[in-house]
Amino acid sequence: MRTESFDTLFKALRKGEVPGSLYLHGPEDVLKEEVVAEVLDRAVDPSLRDFNYDQRSAASLDSEQAETLCTTLPMMADRRVVVIRDIEAWNKRAKAKAAVIRYLERPAAETILVLVQGSTEEDVDADLAAKTLSVRMDPLPSDRAQRWLLRRAEQLGVVLEESAAEHLVKVTGGSLSEIRSELDKLAGLGGGAPLTLDRVADLLGIRHGETQADWRDLVLLGEVGRAVTILPHLLAQTGVSGVGLVSTLAPAVTGIGLARSLYDRGTRGGPLANAVKQALFRIRPPHRFGYDQAASLWARVAPAWPAARVEAAFVALRRADERLKNTAVSDERAILFDLCMELALPWQRAA
After folding, report:
1. Which domain holds residue 346?
2. Residue 193's pLDDT band (boundaries 50, 70, 90)?
3. Do residues 149 and 270 share a domain?
4. Is 216 in the same domain as 177?
5. What pLDDT, on a 0 to 100 scale, did the predictor assign at position 141?
6. Backbone angles phi, psi at 304, to 5 degrees
7. Position 131 pLDDT exceeds 90
8. What is the pTM of this model?
9. Domain boundary among 185, 204, 223
10. pLDDT of amino acid 121
11. How distant is the alpha carbon of residue 145 from its chain centre?
């Protein structure tokens, strides 16, 4: 059928426009859950969900069961919702998948079918995407993740100072599932005064200014001393690796390259940051950074990043990534130290 963005889909659902078949895929599982919940709210009365809502795992379905799920008529209602999860379990010859595809050739007007693929690296199923409304659920930019956090916190009765909310987003990398988990823990503390930045940092065990996003920005700004100083604290955090840190730099260097190309064409100051932000909205890269903040930083540092520096940075990043993945002897901290020096110092001396 066609492909839409999460934003377009959610706006349509809020208007009551529910598609007959949906295929949800991509890394952000929480957004998939929100879409399923919205579809249910719009399509099936809560008092009738026991009769008109079925949820199954793809791996547990045979051909007959899949066909029955899709073709059963609703009871005392106009529509019913069927959710089939974990469809990455289907291979090309899966009989249940074949039954669903046959159904999608002539779908029932009374059935809303939602196919949910897990947050894996599996490719999009072209057969299913061709016969459904396909929507990829990418991570939200950090500013939108923070707004999501504040809405969720309000639902849980958790009050956060703005700086504390911003820190929580940085610590989790904007992952909604991680944010939700941390908020559930904070909710267990009970009510009281708003949680401060220091209080949240203590509870998370990660100090302000020592997140992966902070390190990335320090490197880009050429603040090598501070970037190197926080490396031991970063690498000691759960889930943080040298390869992961390098991967946070690559999209940012790409963004700086974009900003520098506009700068070289004569765009300066506020118009430069605005042009970069508009480019981000057009491209919508699947990375967890706020478009406003990223555009502002990239425009700010663009004068210090000529094209030759951008090109050299990509070479250095690729070399560091290869060393981290292929060298068993070298220390992660030493490789990242070398990377920081290579990205910043020669260009500082040139300036």
Report:
1. 212-350
2. confident
3. no
4. no
5. 86
6. -90, 0
7. yes
8. 0.77
9. 204
10. 61
11. 9
